[in-house]
Amino acid sequence: WWPWCRPRTECCKMMLMACCQEIVSASDMAAGTVAGAILPRQYGLGPGQPRMPMVCSKWNQASKLSGIDRVSSLDELLMADSQRAITAYCEFRHLFPAAQWLDLEPPFGMFHAYMLLELDGGLLYVCMEKFSDPLEITLMCGERPAVLHQASSYRATGEARELTPQRPVVQNMRVELGGRPGRPTVTVSDLVRWIVGPLAMRWRPLNQLTANCQHFAEDVYTFLLNPLSCAGFQGAQRGREGLLSALRGNGALLEGATPDMRRDRLLVLAAVRNNGLALQFAAEELRTDADVVMAAIRCDGFAMQFASEALKKDRNFVLQAVRMSGAALRHVSDKLRKDREVVLAAVRCSSAALQFAAEELQQDKELVSIAVQLDGLVLRFASELLRKDPALVKAAVVQHGGALSYAPEKLRRDKDLVSAAVSSHGLALQYAVEELRADKRIASIAVGRHGMALEFVTEDLRRDRELVMAAVARNGAA
Question: Which tens digits make up the pLDDT trace of 165-175?
Fold first, then answer.
């Protein structure tokens, strides 16, 4: 299913939501039950800040022991070096075997990513990664070759990385940092502020679709190249103007604002334009402000959940909102999720909004037909009765062959329907019944579209030289 992912689209965000809800909801429990780091007072932010699971350790080349020493907190690990500058960084990639034939872009690349930061020109190093649910961070001291070897071989837990010829660790280009006009030098103190502030606010347990190691590496890049998210805490302490500047760079900082600042319309607008979900931190009266809420929805449709009940029931407002973001349909009133015009507007904006429609509208053939023509995979949200409709399923698989997986067995036996599916996407062959996977004509169409579909043909066909040649011509890894 990897080639079918469109991770940066709102449609995919909603499609993935169904399978990720339990993991995301578990994040609150994880943050409360796993020992985490709380913001040290010496960094100037006070108690009561977000907690996050963390593994902290030190490594020293001069040590005669194994070298990995666990420490109890981020405070203990980095306090003594808080004023050191981060002068460079590089990303390490521990490749998966599939990387040699499947070249996907982050955040779904075939590798595990982690970051190595240089302090004061290589006097010390900080290795950071998201291998599982906790943040793993190691302070390293030694000569650069030894540090690179250690980072390539061991995690902060002391566990060895699985290194084989098929799974090497490769180092991306080293990027130097430093003070430039309009971009201050980033210090370890700034790094800690970012970790226990903005990063902790949005930290989620490891999820390969929504919160993986490559998402984390991208977050680190963003912070190092624009440390405003960290400086924002200092800006908040400087008052309204400082906070306004900070919120434009990181709307989540609104959570740490005073009650008066949360009632400030200009500040809240700045926050929600950067991060729609920051609406949850706004004062109640601003969550009834149509312009403020619409600005939040424009940034993230799921911000509708933090709107006032009156706005969730306002038909004109909801129509405008779902035309801007189909995701908003999830959090409107039950009455409006039964409103055909509202649902149709949401589906036309983002076809996956069909999943939030009332059950009776998921049985509306015309509406579902519009949705599957935009994205065949939303067939999964149609009623069981409509998923048995040959014409509707045909429209879905023509748009996206993977929709065949949501069709009943009777239709997966239909030769014309399966042919249409594999013509759209060869890997859809895996959802056909066995007798059709033994059909050479259908198999030829499939491997012609995607060589790796050879995996799903019958054993007899995998001995067919002509078919195998067609598959490897399309993809040598077949």
Answer: 888 999 888 88
Taking the C-alpha atoms of residue 147 and residue 320, their distance in angstroms, rounded to an integer, is: 55
Q: What is the pLDDT of residues 31-64, one digit of tens each?
A: 322 223 333 333 333 334 446 789 999 998 877 4
| Cβ contacts of 181 within 8 Å, gap of 6 or more | none
